[in-house]
Design goal:
- There is one protein chain.
- By secondary structure, the chain is of the alpha/beta class.
- It has helices at 15-25, 38-46, 63-72, 88-96, 109-125, 156-166, 175-181, 193-205; strands spanning 7-11, 30-34, 51-55, 57-58, 61-62, 79-83, 101-104, 130-133, 136-139, 144-147, 150-152, 172-173, 214-217, 221-224.
- It folds into 2 domains: 7-125, Rossmann fold (3-Layer(aba) Sandwich), CATH 3.40.50; 130-224, Arc Repressor Mutant, subunit A (Orthogonal Bundle).
- It has 8 helices and 14 strands.
- The longest helix is centred in the middle third of the chain and has 17 residues, at 109-125.
- The radius of gyration is 18 Å and the shape is globular.
- The two termini are 21 Å apart.
- The relative contact order is 0.10.
Length: 228
């Protein structure tokens, strides 16, 4: 991250946790703390907030509702949801409400910091014509994909699928998320279209002897593993 420090609005009603988060981020980000979320919403609407860190349960407010409201208004400020509610359905609800990432309490501050940094990088790279994640490079203008020196030819839907994963490296992506965001399905359907396309994409991404990049997490979904 270069240039002017980005502004993080923290919506958290646990004072001790809020103070620990501020201590972790201060010096690299400008941090504002709100116990209710009202100030953060106004800052997002005014364009003053680069990133929101939103607890799901706030004093007199519901973090999910706050994020849903911003998304309905067309506001795309990146949101990291934090919550003690860690079941798969809870995490999916947070992401479906419009959260960009979801971290379960209690968490290590080093992981929290890495998640915020990832959102900051994604924000900086959002308008970039080229996405990079580990050995992968995806050119949104030329519509080309490379794994290190090897060029990979993808069909349009495979390209869109890979782009979705590359914008979320290391994060769990569910079948429901893919059906809604990549295939634009807005209803429950029994289909193996996701699994078929991921299988075909893997065959093209992973040459013999290369690390498998898209990992299947039983009962949860998929993850693009580009860690060294």
């Amino acid at each position: 991250m270069t240039g002017e420090m980005q502004t993080v609005y923290l919506c958290e009603d646990e004072k001790e946790l809020a103070e620990a988060i501020i201590k972790e981020l201060v010096g690299r980000y400008r941090v504002f703390w709100s116990e209710t979320g009202a100030e953060a919403v106004e800052a997002a609407r005014a364009g003053r907030a680069a990133i929101l860190v939103m607890d799901r349960k706030l004093k007199g407010a519901d973090g999910l509702t706050i994020v849903e409201t911003l998304r309905a208004e067309g506001n795309r400020t990146p949101v990291l949801m934090i919550s003690a509610m860690g079941a798969v359905d809870d995490r999916v609800a947070g992401l479906r409400a419009g959260g960009d990432d979801y971290l379960v309490k209690p968490f290590a501050m080093v992981e929290f910091s890495a998640r915020v940094d990832a959102l900051a990088r994604r924000l900086s790279e959002a308008s970039a014509p080229v996405l990079r994640a580990g050995p992968l490079e995806l050119d949104l203008v030329a519509r080309t994909v490379r794994r290190e020196s090897r060029e990979i030819e993808l069909l349009p839907r495979e390209f869109k699928l890979l782009e979705y994963f590359m914008r979320r490296p290391g994060l769990v992506v569910t079948r429901k998320m893919l059906l809604e965001d990549v295939w634009n399905y807005r209803f429950h359907t029994q289909t193996n279209v996701v699994d078929v396309h991921i299988r075909n994409l893997r065959l093209k991404l992973d040459a013999p002897g290369e690390k498998k990049l898209i990992v299947n997490l039983r009962g949860e979904g998929f993850l693009l593993d580009v860690a060294a």
